[in-house]
Amino acid sequence: MPSHAPLSAAERAEFEAFATGIANNARALSLPRFRRPVDVSHKGDMSPVTAVDRGVESMLRERIEQAWPGHGLLGEEYGASHVDAEFVWSIDPIDGTRSFISGWPLWGTLIALLRGGTPVLGILDMPALDERWVGHVGVSTEMNGRPCHASACEALGEATLYTTTPDMFTPAEWEAFDRTSRAAYTRRFGGDCYGYGMLASGHIDAVIEANLMPYDYLAITPVVQAAGGVMTDWEGRPLGMASGGRVVAAATPALHAALIASLKG
Known about the structure:
Layout: H1 9-30, E1 40-42, E2 48-50, H2 51-67, E3 72-75, E4 79-81, E5 87-95, H3 97-101, E6 108-115, E7 118-126, E8 131-136, E9 140-143, E10 146-148, E11 160-163, H4 171-182, E12 186-189, H5 194-200, E13 206-209, H6 214-217, H7 220-226, E14 230-233, E15 247-250, H8 253-264
Helix pairs in contact: 1-2, 4-8, 5-7
Protein backbone atom coordinates (compact mmCIF):
# COMPACT_ATOMS: atom_id res chain seq x y z
CA MET A 1 0.00 0.00 0.00
CA PRO A 2 1.23 3.56 -0.66
CA SER A 3 2.90 5.22 2.30
CA HIS A 4 1.65 8.46 3.83
CA ALA A 5 4.80 8.87 5.93
CA PRO A 6 6.65 12.17 5.53
CA LEU A 7 9.97 12.23 3.75
CA SER A 8 13.07 11.78 5.86
CA ALA A 9 15.73 14.48 5.80
CA ALA A 10 17.88 12.31 3.53
CA GLU A 11 14.97 11.70 1.15
CA ARG A 12 14.12 15.41 1.08
CA ALA A 13 17.69 16.28 0.16
CA GLU A 14 17.90 13.62 -2.53
CA PHE A 15 14.57 14.44 -4.15
CA GLU A 16 15.16 18.19 -3.99
CA ALA A 17 18.58 17.88 -5.61
CA PHE A 18 17.07 15.83 -8.42
CA ALA A 19 14.02 18.07 -8.87
CA THR A 20 15.99 21.30 -8.93
CA GLY A 21 18.40 19.72 -11.39
CA ILE A 22 15.66 18.86 -13.85
CA ALA A 23 14.08 22.29 -13.30
CA ASN A 24 17.40 23.77 -14.44
CA ASN A 25 17.26 21.52 -17.50
CA ALA A 26 13.72 22.73 -18.22
CA ARG A 27 14.87 26.36 -18.06
CA ALA A 28 17.66 25.59 -20.49
CA LEU A 29 15.07 24.37 -23.00
CA SER A 30 12.29 26.92 -22.49
CA LEU A 31 14.01 30.24 -21.83
CA PRO A 32 15.94 30.50 -25.14
CA ARG A 33 12.61 30.06 -26.98
CA PHE A 34 10.82 32.79 -25.02
CA ARG A 35 9.98 35.89 -27.10
CA ARG A 36 11.07 34.04 -30.20
CA PRO A 37 8.88 32.79 -33.06
CA VAL A 38 7.14 29.56 -32.06
CA ASP A 39 4.48 27.46 -33.74
CA VAL A 40 1.25 27.25 -31.77
CA SER A 41 -1.42 24.57 -32.13
CA HIS A 42 -4.56 23.91 -30.12
CA LYS A 43 -5.67 20.91 -28.11
CA GLY A 44 -9.19 19.54 -27.99
CA ASP A 45 -10.22 22.08 -25.35
CA MET A 46 -8.80 24.85 -27.57
CA SER A 47 -5.99 25.61 -25.11
CA PRO A 48 -2.73 26.47 -26.89
CA VAL A 49 0.30 24.20 -26.93
CA THR A 50 3.76 24.62 -28.45
CA ALA A 51 6.72 22.41 -29.26
CA VAL A 52 8.36 23.95 -26.19
CA ASP A 53 5.64 22.55 -23.91
CA ARG A 54 6.04 19.10 -25.42
CA GLY A 55 9.83 19.19 -25.54
CA VAL A 56 10.19 20.23 -21.92
CA GLU A 57 7.76 17.58 -20.70
CA SER A 58 9.42 14.88 -22.80
CA MET A 59 12.78 15.74 -21.28
CA LEU A 60 11.41 15.80 -17.73
CA ARG A 61 9.64 12.47 -18.16
CA GLU A 62 12.77 10.86 -19.59
CA ARG A 63 14.91 12.10 -16.72
CA ILE A 64 12.39 10.90 -14.10
CA GLU A 65 11.93 7.50 -15.73
CA GLN A 66 15.70 6.99 -15.86
CA ALA A 67 16.28 8.04 -12.26
CA TRP A 68 13.16 6.57 -10.65
CA PRO A 69 11.79 3.72 -12.83
CA GLY A 70 9.35 2.63 -10.14
CA HIS A 71 7.71 6.05 -9.80
CA GLY A 72 4.48 7.17 -11.45
CA LEU A 73 4.07 10.17 -13.74
CA LEU A 74 1.37 12.72 -14.44
CA GLY A 75 1.95 15.38 -17.09
CA GLU A 76 -0.08 17.92 -19.01
CA GLU A 77 1.00 16.88 -22.48
CA TYR A 78 1.53 13.12 -22.25
CA GLY A 79 -0.87 11.95 -19.57
CA ALA A 80 -0.52 9.60 -16.63
CA SER A 81 1.26 6.33 -15.93
CA HIS A 82 1.48 4.20 -12.77
CA VAL A 83 -0.25 6.83 -10.64
CA ASP A 84 -1.02 4.15 -8.04
CA ALA A 85 2.69 3.97 -7.19
CA GLU A 86 3.92 5.13 -3.79
CA PHE A 87 5.78 8.04 -5.41
CA VAL A 88 4.29 9.99 -8.32
CA TRP A 89 5.76 13.00 -10.12
CA SER A 90 3.48 15.71 -11.53
CA ILE A 91 4.72 17.94 -14.36
CA ASP A 92 3.40 21.10 -15.98
CA PRO A 93 6.15 22.05 -18.45
CA ILE A 94 4.82 25.55 -19.25
CA ASP A 95 2.14 26.75 -16.86
CA GLY A 96 0.80 29.81 -18.61
CA THR A 97 1.31 28.92 -22.27
CA ARG A 98 -0.78 31.94 -23.31
CA SER A 99 1.66 34.14 -21.40
CA PHE A 100 4.62 32.34 -22.97
CA ILE A 101 3.45 32.81 -26.54
CA SER A 102 2.52 36.47 -25.97
CA GLY A 103 5.88 37.44 -24.45
CA TRP A 104 4.47 37.91 -20.94
CA PRO A 105 7.03 36.70 -18.38
CA LEU A 106 4.57 35.21 -15.88
CA TRP A 107 4.83 31.59 -17.02
CA GLY A 108 6.48 28.81 -15.08
CA THR A 109 7.43 25.17 -14.83
CA LEU A 110 5.76 23.15 -12.08
CA ILE A 111 7.22 19.94 -10.66
CA ALA A 112 5.69 18.02 -7.74
CA LEU A 113 6.45 14.81 -5.92
CA LEU A 114 3.54 12.98 -4.29
CA ARG A 115 3.81 10.22 -1.72
CA GLY A 116 0.75 8.09 -1.13
CA GLY A 117 -1.30 10.52 -3.22
CA THR A 118 -0.28 13.57 -1.14
CA PRO A 119 1.99 16.32 -2.50
CA VAL A 120 5.13 16.49 -0.33
CA LEU A 121 7.57 18.46 -2.52
CA GLY A 122 6.80 21.27 -4.93
CA ILE A 123 8.87 23.43 -7.26
CA LEU A 124 7.46 26.60 -8.83
CA ASP A 125 10.07 27.87 -11.29
CA MET A 126 9.75 31.18 -13.15
CA PRO A 127 12.53 31.09 -15.79
CA ALA A 128 11.99 34.56 -17.30
CA LEU A 129 12.12 36.16 -13.83
CA ASP A 130 14.91 33.96 -12.43
CA GLU A 131 12.75 33.14 -9.41
CA ARG A 132 12.15 29.72 -7.92
CA TRP A 133 10.15 28.47 -4.95
CA VAL A 134 10.86 25.07 -3.39
CA GLY A 135 8.43 23.81 -0.74
CA HIS A 136 8.67 20.76 1.51
CA VAL A 137 5.40 20.08 3.37
CA GLY A 138 5.93 20.26 7.11
CA VAL A 139 9.37 21.84 6.72
CA SER A 140 9.72 25.15 4.87
CA THR A 141 9.49 27.01 1.57
CA GLU A 142 12.47 28.80 0.10
CA MET A 143 12.51 31.37 -2.68
CA ASN A 144 15.88 31.44 -4.48
CA GLY A 145 17.44 29.65 -1.52
CA ARG A 146 16.09 31.94 1.19
CA PRO A 147 13.20 31.04 3.54
CA CYS A 148 9.92 32.81 2.83
CA HIS A 149 6.61 32.97 4.64
CA ALA A 150 3.04 33.89 3.86
CA SER A 151 1.56 37.07 5.33
CA ALA A 152 -0.30 37.34 8.64
CA CYS A 153 -3.52 38.59 7.00
CA GLU A 154 -6.60 37.09 8.68
CA ALA A 155 -9.47 39.31 7.51
CA LEU A 156 -11.04 39.18 4.06
CA GLY A 157 -11.53 42.93 4.10
CA GLU A 158 -7.76 43.40 4.44
CA ALA A 159 -6.72 40.83 1.84
CA THR A 160 -5.18 41.30 -1.58
CA LEU A 161 -6.77 38.57 -3.69
CA TYR A 162 -5.74 37.33 -7.12
CA THR A 163 -7.06 35.07 -9.85
CA THR A 164 -5.68 34.47 -13.32
CA THR A 165 -8.73 35.28 -15.42
CA PRO A 166 -12.53 35.59 -15.15
CA ASP A 167 -12.72 33.17 -18.09
CA MET A 168 -11.89 30.20 -15.84
CA PHE A 169 -15.20 30.40 -13.94
CA THR A 170 -18.65 29.09 -14.81
CA PRO A 171 -21.45 31.64 -14.28
CA ALA A 172 -22.22 30.20 -10.83
CA GLU A 173 -18.54 30.11 -9.88
CA TRP A 174 -18.09 33.67 -11.08
CA GLU A 175 -20.97 34.81 -8.89
CA ALA A 176 -19.28 33.25 -5.86
CA PHE A 177 -15.86 34.61 -6.79
CA ASP A 178 -17.19 38.08 -7.59
CA ARG A 179 -18.99 38.28 -4.26
CA THR A 180 -15.93 37.09 -2.36
CA SER A 181 -13.33 39.16 -4.19
CA ARG A 182 -15.37 42.36 -3.92
CA ALA A 183 -15.33 41.91 -0.14
CA ALA A 184 -11.52 41.87 -0.18
CA TYR A 185 -9.33 44.95 0.20
CA THR A 186 -8.40 44.66 -3.46
CA ARG A 187 -8.66 42.09 -6.25
CA ARG A 188 -6.35 41.69 -9.19
CA PHE A 189 -6.26 39.51 -12.31
CA GLY A 190 -3.41 37.71 -14.06
CA GLY A 191 -0.40 35.72 -13.03
CA ASP A 192 -1.07 32.02 -13.68
CA CYS A 193 1.13 30.13 -11.19
CA TYR A 194 3.06 33.26 -10.18
CA GLY A 195 0.33 34.43 -7.80
CA TYR A 196 0.95 31.43 -5.57
CA GLY A 197 4.63 32.29 -5.32
CA MET A 198 3.70 35.84 -4.38
CA LEU A 199 1.41 34.41 -1.70
CA ALA A 200 4.15 32.16 -0.33
CA SER A 201 6.48 35.18 -0.13
CA GLY A 202 3.93 37.32 1.71
CA HIS A 203 3.26 39.86 -1.04
CA ILE A 204 -0.38 38.93 -1.62
CA ASP A 205 -2.83 37.15 0.66
CA ALA A 206 -5.13 34.89 -1.36
CA VAL A 207 -5.74 33.18 -4.70
CA ILE A 208 -9.05 31.67 -5.83
CA GLU A 209 -9.25 29.73 -9.09
CA ALA A 210 -11.32 27.15 -10.94
CA ASN A 211 -11.10 24.83 -13.93
CA LEU A 212 -7.58 23.71 -13.02
CA MET A 213 -6.07 20.30 -13.65
CA PRO A 214 -4.05 18.37 -11.03
CA TYR A 215 -0.73 19.28 -12.64
CA ASP A 216 -1.73 22.95 -12.25
CA TYR A 217 -1.93 22.82 -8.46
CA LEU A 218 -0.04 19.77 -7.13
CA ALA A 219 3.36 21.50 -7.21
CA ILE A 220 1.93 24.73 -5.81
CA THR A 221 0.31 23.11 -2.79
CA PRO A 222 3.57 22.28 -0.95
CA VAL A 223 4.94 25.74 -1.76
CA VAL A 224 1.96 27.47 -0.16
CA GLN A 225 1.55 25.09 2.77
CA ALA A 226 5.22 24.98 3.77
CA ALA A 227 5.23 28.80 3.74
CA GLY A 228 2.52 28.77 6.41
CA GLY A 229 -0.45 29.16 4.09
CA VAL A 230 -3.50 26.98 3.49
CA MET A 231 -4.54 25.52 0.14
CA THR A 232 -7.61 23.35 -0.45
CA ASP A 233 -10.53 22.94 -2.80
CA TRP A 234 -13.57 25.24 -2.46
CA GLU A 235 -15.07 22.87 0.11
CA GLY A 236 -11.97 23.00 2.29
CA ARG A 237 -10.77 19.50 1.41
CA PRO A 238 -7.10 18.61 0.88
CA LEU A 239 -5.85 18.64 -2.69
CA GLY A 240 -4.71 15.50 -4.48
CA MET A 241 -4.80 13.90 -7.90
CA ALA A 242 -8.55 13.29 -7.68
CA SER A 243 -9.51 16.80 -6.54
CA GLY A 244 -11.71 18.95 -8.72
CA GLY A 245 -10.38 22.03 -10.43
CA ARG A 246 -11.48 24.65 -7.88
CA VAL A 247 -8.78 25.81 -5.44
CA VAL A 248 -8.47 28.33 -2.62
CA ALA A 249 -5.08 29.44 -1.30
CA ALA A 250 -4.81 31.76 1.70
CA ALA A 251 -2.05 33.17 3.87
CA THR A 252 -3.62 32.09 7.18
CA PRO A 253 -6.22 29.59 8.45
CA ALA A 254 -8.52 32.43 9.50
CA LEU A 255 -8.45 34.05 6.06
CA HIS A 256 -8.94 30.66 4.42
CA ALA A 257 -12.03 30.02 6.57
CA ALA A 258 -13.44 33.42 5.62
CA LEU A 259 -12.89 32.71 1.92
CA ILE A 260 -14.56 29.30 2.12
CA ALA A 261 -17.54 30.76 3.97
CA SER A 262 -17.93 33.54 1.43
CA LEU A 263 -17.69 31.19 -1.54
CA LYS A 264 -20.45 29.07 -0.03
CA GLY A 265 -22.58 32.21 0.22
